[in-house]
Amino acid sequence: MLTKDSLPLMIGEIDYANAWPLFVGLDQRLDASELGLCSRIPAELNRKLREGELQASAVSSFAYGLNSKEYLLLPELCVGSEGRVNSVMLFLKQPIERVRPQRIAVTTASATSVNLLKILMKLYYDLDAEYIPAEPVLDQMLEDADGALIIGDPAIHASWRSEELHIIDLGELWHRWTGLGMTFAVVAVHKEAAAAFPREIHDLHQAMLATKRHNLADLTTLMDKACDELGGERAYWLDYFTCLQYDFGQKLREGLALYFRYATQLGLLDHEVQLAFYEDNSAE
Ligand SMILES: C=C(O[C@@H]1C=C(C(=O)O)C=C[C@H]1O)C(=O)O
Questions:
Q1: To pair with 27 at 20 to 30 A between CA atoms, which of 139, 165, 175, 245?
Q2: pLDDT of 249-283, one tens digit each?
Q3: pLDDT for 47-106, tens place per residue?
Q4: What EC number(s) would the UniProt record show (predicted)?
Q5: What confidence tens digit (pLDDT) does each residue in 200-214 have?
């Protein structure tokens, strides 16, 4: 049970550049006695939120689907794309039109993208592959597989040095197939935390919206940080942060609802998922 001793609430931050617009500078907008941040890869955040070590977190959209009865979505916040995402990519030794991959190594960091890959392989390509969970190290993954799914910063680095490989950008393929956006990550809050700490969750939501607006209004800070910490050119990062979408608009919500329907149809989820949003009652 959550009590006043539960403060500060712990909030999960995705440890990849794709989530920076929602998190860079966020700590300065939070009261540290109310809210603290914990930065991890998505799979760890998914687990920590489920087990109650975190009260709210950016998580894989698929993790929201698994636990949708316990979670609420914070409105107007997500990591998605309507087209190329540039960091959720399948690296293939042979073009898929020529050789159908039988064994695909998939990063253990992801939940959304691994299941998106399964959906695309089955329903778009009519292909039953074997999926082998693996650390996201391209060369190792390809030692014993026809393809490798990698997400986040490791995918960006892999894409810079994979000339001989054939790359499928999953955001782009999803958009070409469905005409919709794809939502890779959402910000979910435990229903119990939203009920017990309405003011703190209100503050978190407002701080994240303000952080997002500030970071996207001028991408200079994020581009410089990315060049310093991850390498590459400013032009690359300008394109990267411009392709990504953070507002969870209609095309991304519709895309996510369709993704959940396909996941249920294929038995990747054992229930239907409705998107349920947090409503700010903090003023009552
Ligand atoms: C856009 C991306 O989305 C990420 C993909 C996730 C997943 O597949 O579970 C989780 C969080 C997102 O930040 C990326 O990895 O680059």
A1: 245
A2: 999 999 999 999 999 999 999 999 999 999 987 77
A3: 999 999 999 999 999 999 999 999 999 999 999 999 999 999 999 999 999 999 999 999
A4: 4.2.1.151
A5: 999 999 999 999 999
- What rounded mean pLDDT belongs to the chain? 97
Can you read off the two tokens belonging to residue 177? 């197939």
Cα-to-centroid distance, 22 and ligand 1 (Å): 13
CA-based Rg of the chain, rounded to a whole angstrom? 19
Question: Would you give the end-to-end CA distance of the chain in angstroms?
Answer: 23
**Ligand 1 center from residue 120 Cα (angstroms):** 16
Domains and CATH numbers, the chain: 4-81+182-265 (3.40.190.10), 88-178 (3.40.190.10)
Q: Which residue type occupies 131?
A: Y
Going by C-alpha positions, the residue among 273, 268, 269, 255 that lies closest to residue 131 is 268
156 φψ region: left (φ > 0), alpha (ψ -120 to 50), beta (else): alpha
Q: Answer yes or no: is the ipTM higher than 0.90.
A: yes
C-beta atoms surrounding 123 within 10 Å: 13
Nearest to 278 by CA among 183, 204, 181, 182: 204
Amino acid type, 8: P
d(CA 163, CA 175): 24
- The confidence score (pLDDT) of residue 284 equals 61
Residue 148 phi, psi dihedral angles, 5° rounding: -140, 130
State whether the beta carbon of 68 lies less than 6 angstroms from ligand 1: no
Contact 55, 6 (CB under 8 A): yes
> Is the overall model pTM greater than 0.95, yes or no?
yes
Length of the chain: 284
Distance of alpha carbon 20 from the chain centroid: 12
Q: Which atom of ligand 1 is nearest to the CA of 116?
A: 8
